[in-house]
Amino acid sequence: MNVIITILLIILVIFILWQVLIRVLRRFFDFPAPAFIGKFLDSDFRRKMQPPDKIISRSKIKEGMKVLEVGCGSGAFTTFVARAVGDKGEVFALDIQPEMLKQIENKLKQPENKDIKNIHLIEGDALNMPLEDNTFDLVYSITVFQELPDKNKALKEMKRVLKPNGILAITEFLPDPDYPLKSTTVKIGTREGFILDDIGGNFWNYTARFIKPHN
């Protein structure tokens, strides 16, 4: 019993030190999740903690939608969203790191994903997206938004590419060292003119859903 308690305490200490280290580094440097951890980010272990079906439901991703994933990384949730929007829908997966997009390309070549034809990979910056105005029904990001160096500018870009009454869904998860409280995400979103629609999930794992006003 003492051995188990000791192991749990060691894990807890490592987790706390990791959280502190990353948060301190974030005060001085802006950097995305490195590409070499792509396999961990795109893992069944992660998806057990963040079930794709729950994120899709809380985000209100539906069949036929044209959606944009900001910061798709190695595609942990991209293929699930692609199947959720179906053949009549489209997923545009944007990331600033070509190494991450290459991992999605390789993933889509796997036999179990050969049926997916509606994903478009885009190398680009969330602060200056190479996309037209009023294009998407829904924009979402999953444990990425807090990594963006200028969140206000990113939100302006997201609003620009969303159609009127389009949905913005931001998902956060506590083990992520960039995790913000719900109130922080809501404050940032509403400050840029989005209307809060709902917050689904719990303290540890939530999705804040906003609406772009019609005018």
TrEMBL record:
Annotated Methyltransferase domain residues: 61-173
Keywords on record: Membrane, Methyltransferase, Transferase, Transmembrane, Transmembrane helix
Alphabetized SUPFAM superfamilies for the sequence: S-adenosyl-L-methionine-dependent methyltransferases
InterPro entries registered for this protein in UniProt: Methyltranfer_dom (IPR025714), SAM-dependent_MTases_sf (IPR029063)
Any GO molecular function: methyltransferase activity
Biological process (GO), any one: methylation
Transmembrane segments annotated in the record for this chain: 6-25
Origin superkingdom: Archaea
Pfam family, one: Methyltransf_31
Statement: the UniProt record of this protein carries the keyword DNA repair: no
Protein name: Methyltransferase domain-containing protein
Species: Methanobacterium veterum
